[in-house]
Design brief:
alpha/beta, Rossmann fold, seven-stranded parallel β-sheet, six-stranded parallel β-sheet, elongated
Length: about 450
């Protein structure tokens, strides 16, 4: 099957071909015809399945098929949970639409709003935005959404996790009633189903992988190690196997900073990326990581959502996530587009239950690899992982790290106690799951995402 056979124009197919893609992925093959017909869509897709092109290509095609005379208005709106993902999606829109007369714009917080206002005075056909900053523009009456024909909610599960549901509903209230709605989510929780029921009109349902399934192309391993020796083992693995482009996950921002500094001192070029970093620092770190100038990128779950590298070879869970579904999201950064990938987890005695929950979710046992010289000390007792952190990143309890993941109760809901970072009114941009109990509190600290 070719992209041309799906009904896409010559201009779009040429742009896709120039990016090195010749055959559509399963979600593209299923989603593009549905979207081209104008119907609503509920898409279940893990990261790395080609989802972005799956909605971007037909969106461009539909806008070109119905040209509008007179003043140009915003005709398509794509909402994303993070600024990195917004930048990634808008870049795809520009690349795939390079031979079309359509103009796109990305909009997120953490940067000056005035250049965005100025850009909105010009032509914008497709707007890619994060909910908080879009609401800022709506309140200042600097953006007009009254002509939107297509709405895309990308990674809707993450938007709900981050407390954006009220923001989304406020945006929906100002959109035209007659429009095409596309909702994409890696998981279908009850909250997602509720949102879909209220938003979508007789949608087509597309799922390209078993729910919460890990990519079969990813080789998963568990390395048992004492909590105090995790950094030493990670350094050993990277140097011993000459790993490059290694994406390492920690639970907290503080842990990410500390680990990146320690790796750097060990002669392994590393940087941390999380919500407290400036947008310029995050952009620079991503650029250096993509070009392999940077050997290791240490990230928190939310910050990593916008990382789009077609052949990322290594993902390492320095600390296992509290929420099993996050493990699937994390390792889904590798093994993309048909390429193989490796996902390694450094697991101490404190994390045995987390590992069990992950294995139960993915319905398989993850192979254990014991590195000689790093055998766990059987006399060490398990300690509780308090507020989303253990002592693995540096030998002492780190606390939660403001706005980061709080442990979840048996029912899957965040436990209270996480304190959103207000930062004197500036966008934190990295409020994690559970650290933000409500949309209003989220916006006070992390609105600009």
């Amino acid at each position: 099957m070719s992209f041309a056979s799906l009904g896409l124009s010559e201009e779009i197919v040429r742009a896709v071909t120039e990016r090195g893609y010749t055959e559509p992925t399963p979600i593209q093959a299923q989603a593009i015809p549905v979207i081209l017909k104008g119907g609503d869509l509920l898409g279940g897709a893990q990261t790395g399945t080609g989802k972005t092109a799956g909605f971007t290509l037909p969106l461009l095609q539909r806008l070109m098929a119905r040209p509008v005379a007179g003043k140009a208005h915003i005709r398509a709106l794509v909402l994303t949970p993070t600024r990195e993902l917004a930048a990634q999606v808008e870049e795809s829109v520009r690349e795939y639409g390079k031979y079309l007369p359509l103009k796109s714009m990305m909009m997120f917080g953490g940067v000056n709003i005035n250049p965005q206002i100025k850009q909105l005075h010009g032509r914008v056909d497709i707007l890619v935005a994060t909910p908080g900053r879009l609401l800022d523009h709506l309140q200042q009456k600097t953006v007009d959404l009254s002509h939107v024909e297509i709405l895309v909610l990308d990674e809707a599960d993450r938007m709900l996790d981050m407390g954006f549901i009220r923001d989304i509903k406020r945006v929906l209230a100002v959109l035209p009633k007659q429009r095409q709605n596309l909702l994409f989510s890696a998981t279908f929780s009850d909250e997602i189903k509720l949102l879909a029921d209220g938003l979508l009109n007789n949608p087509a349902l597309i799922e390209v992988a078993r729910r919460n399934a890990a990519n079969e192309l990813i080789e998963q391993r568990v390395y048992p190690v004492d909590r105090e020796r995790k950094r030493e083992l990670l350094t050993h693995l990277i140097k011993e196997h000459n790993w490059f482009q290694v994406l390492v996950f920690t639970r907290t921002k503080h842990g990410a900073n500390r680990l990146a500094e320690q790796l750097d001192k060990s002669g392994i070029p590393a940087m941390a990326i999380h919500g407290n970093k400036s947008q310029a620092a995050r952009t620079r770190a991503l650029a250096e990581f993509k070009t392999a100038k940077l050997q290791v990128l240490v990230a928190t779950d939310i910050a990593a959502r916008g990382i789009d590298i077609s052949e990322l070879p290594h993902v390492v869970n320095f600390e296992l996530p509290n929420v099993p579904e996050d493990y699937v999201h994390r390792i889904g950064r590798t093994g993309r587009a048909g390429s193989n990938g490796e996902a390694s987890s450094l697991v101490c005695i404190d994390e045995k239950k987390l590992l069990h929950d992950i294995e139960r979710l993915i319905k398989r046992e993850i192979p254990v690899v014991q590195v000689p010289g790093f055998e766990p000390d059987p006399s060490i007792k398990a300690e509780p992982i308090l507020n989303g952190s253990n002592r693995g990143a540096g030998g002492r309890g780190q606390g939660q790290g403001r706005g980061q993941s709080a442990p979840r109760s048996a029912g899957g809901q965040p436990r209270t106690g996480g304190t959103p970072r207000t930062g004197g009114g500036k966008p934190a941009g990295g409020a994690g799951r559970g650290g933000v109990p409500s949309s209003a509190q989220h916006r006070s600290g992390g609105r600009g995402r």
